[in-house]
């Protein structure tokens, strides 16, 4: 069989495969175990293999690429329009194969094992931060129910809670005091684990050239730098800086019809974690950048004079996304990348 492209619908164990020739005719339909996919692909030298960018796709993609195949990963939302009639695994595999043949299709870059390791660390840290936030909110609620209020900020809670447990007197029962002590210990453990992740990211960024270049951008620290390197490597999947900003959901949504353009709020599509980190970085860097006598500083001052601060922060985050693309693509520091925009 002259198989030109294999479309694989990945499952946890069972996977469906559809093979098409150069004309698009389906020549092969097969359902097999995930571990058997490399054996099947080895029978077809030098073909294109398309999969959805889901859990396990990057590992399998690296295995298949070593066999000499061209691996194309697609976003599931771009595959959905090609599913015909009733949805099942065989139809999904056929839709993946058909979508991969489109000349305007956008593909997901294959991640290396180091990128996936770094991304896993970021996701574990983000989970711990969410658990710590939930714990802090519960601590505040327990104290507020007993007439004790604490100013905003995690540091203020951490500094005041031990003293409150000891000196609250009749406001806290013995059982609640023991509960607060246990929650205080849990909070300290979460903070230590998060700090350990931060130290690991700092050590990685210190030895990585791409991270060092990204850290030259105001508002980008080791956390942001390692997150972007883990997600996009050298930004080879984006043709220009605006594409990266659009992928992060930092550009307006369009509702254009009949030749009448209409722009709405930011789309908030794409990677929510990277977008949140970039906006936090922009908010931290904005006061300093607005005081500088640079093109970015004068642009910020004009924007601050006519727009809400939150709008300015998002606009600065979008500009930072373009600078990140230029830094990674051109392999230069911030000063040279900003001048090229």
Can you walk me through this structure?
With 341 residues, the protein is of the alpha/beta class. The chain folds into three domains: 5-108, YqgF/RNase H-like domain (Nucleotidyltransferase, domain 5, 2-Layer Sandwich); 114-206; 209-340, no CATH class. It is built from 14 helices and eight strands. Strands 3-2-1-4-5-6 form a six-stranded mixed β-sheet. Helix 7 crosses helix 9 (222-232) and helix 13 packs across helix 14 (334-340). It is globular, with a radius of gyration of 25 Å.
Strand residue percentage: 5-15%
Extract low-pLDDT stretches.
none
Q: Can you tell me the number of structural domains?
A: 3
Number of distinct helices: 14
Q: What kind of oligomer do you see? A: single chain
Taking all Cα atoms into account, the compactness measure Rg is 25 Å
Going across the biggest sheet, name each strand in turn: 3-2-1-4-5-6
- The helix/strand series, from N terminus to C terminus, equals EEEHEHEHHEHHHHHHEEHHHH
Distance between the termini: 50 Å
Arithmetic mean pLDDT? 90
SS class: alpha/beta
Largest sheet: 6 strands, mixed
> What is the number of beta strands?
8
């Amino acid at each position: 069989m002259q198989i030109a492209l294999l479309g694989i619908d990945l499952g946890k164990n069972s996977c469906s495969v559809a093979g098409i020739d150069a004309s698009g005719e389906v020549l092969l339909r097969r359902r097999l175990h995930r571990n058997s996919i490399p054996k099947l692909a080895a029978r077809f030298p030098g073909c294109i293999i398309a999969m959805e960018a889901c859990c396990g796709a990057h590992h399998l993609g690296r295995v298949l690429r070593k066999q000499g195949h061209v691996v194309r990963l697609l976003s599931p939302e771009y595959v959905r329009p090609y599913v015909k009639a009733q949805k099942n695994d065989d139809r999904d595999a056929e839709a993946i194969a058909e979508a991969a043949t489109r000349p305007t299709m956008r593909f997901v870059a294959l991640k290396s094992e180091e990128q996936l390791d770094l991304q896993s660390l970021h996701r574990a840290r983000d989970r711990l931060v969410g658990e710590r936030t939930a714990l802090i909110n519960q601590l505040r609620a327990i104290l507020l129910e007993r007439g004790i209020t604490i100013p905003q900020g995690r540091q203020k809670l951490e500094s005041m809670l031990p003293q409150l447990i000891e000196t609250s007197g009749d406001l806290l029962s013995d059982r609640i005091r023991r509960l607060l002590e246990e929650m205080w210990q849990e909070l300290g453990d979460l903070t230590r684990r998060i700090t350990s992740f931060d130290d690991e990211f700092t050590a990685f960024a210190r030895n990585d050239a791409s991270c060092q270049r990204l850290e030259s951008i105001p508002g980008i620290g080791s956390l942001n730098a390692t997150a972007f390197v883990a997600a996009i490597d050298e930004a080879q999947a984006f043709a220009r800086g605006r594409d990266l900003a659009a992928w992060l959901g930092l550009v307006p949504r369009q509702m254009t019809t009949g030749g009448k353009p209409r722009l709405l709020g930011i789309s908030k599509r794409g990677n929510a974690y990277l977008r949140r980190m970039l906006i936090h970085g922009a908010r931290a860097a904005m006061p300093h950048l607005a005081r500088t006598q640079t093109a970015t500083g004068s642009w910020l001052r004009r924007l601050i004079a006519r727009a809400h601060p939150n709008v300015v922060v998002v606009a600065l985050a979008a500009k930072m996304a373009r600078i990140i693309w230029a830094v990674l693509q051109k392999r230069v520091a911030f000063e040279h990348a900003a001048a090229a925009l």
